[in-house]
Write a structure and sequence with these properties.
Helix content is 69%, strand content 2%. By secondary structure, it is an all-alpha fold.
Length: 380
Amino acid sequence: MTMRRPDASTVRRGVVLLALYAVSIAIALVASAVLIAITGGPWQKVLSALLDGSFRNAGRWGGTFGEAAPLLLVALGAIVSTRAGLVNIGQEGQVAVGAALATWVATRNSGAVALIAALIGGFVGGALWAGVAALLRYWRKVPEVISTLLLVFIASQGTGYLLTRTFLLLDPDPNKPNRVQTSAQLDASTRIGQIRVFGNEFPWSVPVVVLLAVAVGVVLHRTVWGFRLSVLGRNPRTAQRTGVSVVRSGAAALAVGGAMAGLAGAAMLAGGAANYRYTPGFANNVGWEGLLVALVARNRPLVCIPVALLFASLRTGAGFLAATGVERSIVDVVRALLVLALLVPPAVAAIRRRRAAIEEPAPAPSSGASASTAFGGAPA
């Protein structure tokens, strides 16, 4: 089996894309330095602080790996939904619901079985929350892009309310006042174990999620179900004519996307996020940033792995930047500028592909085909 070498146009597009990334990131770093300098911060330390906080300092890259795992999970779920032509932007709420249900399971039991049950609970919770959007989509024709977004706010307020009521689901920690209420802490036996390498620690969920990314890539590109989702995403009418159930396949894609986000929330909880407690705002933008990971990776599961690591390094590095004396609000702006820099090259590449497709001339019919079709017959 011989490997096909990339042609000159493919190499040229790759070089242009890399150059776009380099220019975009450089502009974002310069803008960040200018902004920090204007506010009186140490502008010379922007890049150095980001690298120190994410990789270079002792024990930092383990934390970056831990941050990358839930981002990757959310991105994989977004890819499944997008493959079916559906736009699920409610991952933030699905992460919250999945983590809340995992908390309810884990704080009432202990041991390895309880941990597995909590992870399953997070998976189911996210699927059910996305299932509400699927029900509205196929029963009442409500666009999923609207319903999933609105469900984020319901999930956030609903789970926060549960933390203030001891007779309801989450059993708030009695040692905390209501205004800063959190759930009870997970028992030590109900936590995901840590891998320790060269002074760094990260949960076992990290290698598992990487393997899951490989599995999702195989399922989407090498199985019948993945082919059905692709057909559905390209043309629902054609999918229906070929025997693909639009409702069943579309609802399953939305549910799987939500389930992956819910599982990310459960893995965050059991992996140590918020000190193994469910708190208001637990998702902490993981749903939104996981969606951006899928967008930057152009919905390719394996490409999501390094992109998730890059986004995770921005999260951990930004915290270190704040420790150097930069105001937290300015740190958030720096993160936003760098995320925007990562989104510009894929957007430019998509625009160029669309223009090329529009400008490409249609193939001219053969003489036999023109003669036959001119009289209403089939092409020869």
